[in-house]
Amino acid sequence: MQGAGEMPGPGETPDPEEALLATILETGGTGIVEGYICNSRCEGAVGRGADTPYGDMYRREMQEVLGPEQQAFGADVDASGSSQPLPDPQLSMTSPIGQKPSDVEAVPMTYKDVMCSKCKVFWEAAMKKEIDGHDKTGTFTKVKELPEGRKAIGSKWVFSWKTNEKGLIVDFKARMVARGFSQIHGIDFHHSFSACPSAASIKTVIAVATEKGKNLAHWDVKQAYTHAKLKEEIYLRFPEGCGCMSGKVVKVERALYGLKHSDREWGFEAVDALIENGCEQCRVDPRVFRKVVDGEVVGLIVIYVDDIVVAADEGEREELFPSLNKKFQVTNLGECTWYDGCAIAMDVENGITQLSQTAYIESMLKRFDVTTTAFTLAATDADLGPKRDDEPAVDKPVREAIGCLM
């Protein structure tokens, strides 16, 4: 019997399980082999969430495939039998991190597009990260069969770049999104309204922080929606690209991107957490909060989906962050330089804050091919009114361009 990853000797018949394991090891630790997701950062057979119910689901499925060799899954086995972590896939090729999205490739629209992408290894790593997150929070529970009279909601992968204030790629994002349009009112959900901070509220908080000389901190809640439990009984069919779980039906225990009421349920969780920490909810904008100590406002907070902006002194931030991080998985992104599509440049000492959308403007110019269009001088008496019916229509997506400016 040859060792894991070794070629069979003359006259030997390759073991199917060992052949599969060898193929997995040859992928560099990240890839989809025979429909099974693997990653160099896996622990055991199924990753960091192997002790959770969702992890057990994957572990049982993978044990059926890999058998006793599953302990070596995701590790490089040397001649001595010891396992070594496989190299990080992001170091095995030229990384697109730090480049403009337009200089790399178009964002994949489907899982099949990912399989053909030159950044395939990065998108797969993002998918693995997404599945690990659901595993850890217990978003899904496996069911033997769909209850009679119920329909499973479909789902799909949504891919996107995560960019900074300069419009450069900083990370790859893959979201498992439910097809919420197929939800039935009164069965799958009851209320869907959810508040969202207005642009005026966000700018007001930034202006007050500038006037009070307070820095803006940017926090990110990982997979924010999944921190809210669902009251309704919802079933979902996994999308393609989930390994051995592709196409299988599970029960959704927590809010998921795409469901009509996910943002509403997450909003309740976020509000309760901030109120528990002594914050007051704004009566005009429910996603804006303030913290008052001895009659003085010491902090302002804005929540926009999974992004939290805090305008407060360092002491107040250090008191609030551990408390929220204990309830949710919160990442401190440092000083807020990019929020809701705007670049933020604060000069606390001089009391000046600048907001700009240079990266967005440049992307729109390139999108509508304005950068290569020559300027035309128009006389003061030129006819700039509506075009006459007998004139040919402009072959440009005018309505789409106007919508991008609103």
Task: Tell me what the structure shows.
The termini are far apart. The longest helix has 18 residues, at 120-137. The strands form six sheets. A six-stranded antiparallel beta sheet has the order 11-12-13-14-8-15, sandwiched between helices. Strands 5-10-9 form a three-stranded antiparallel beta sheet. It is globular. By secondary structure, the protein is of the alpha+beta class. The chain has helices at residues 16-26, 53-66, 111-116, 120-137, 199-212, 262-276, 314-327, 358-367, 398-405; strands at 31-33, 36-38, 75-77, 83-85, 140-142, 155-163, 169-178, 216-221, 229-237, 249-254, 279-281, 288-293, 296-304, 307-312, 330-335, 338-339, 342-347, 352-356.
Key attributes of the depicted protein:
single chain; 406 residues; alpha+beta; Alpha-Beta Plaits; 6-stranded antiparallel sheet; 3-stranded antiparallel sheet; 9 helices; 24% strand; globular; disordered N terminus
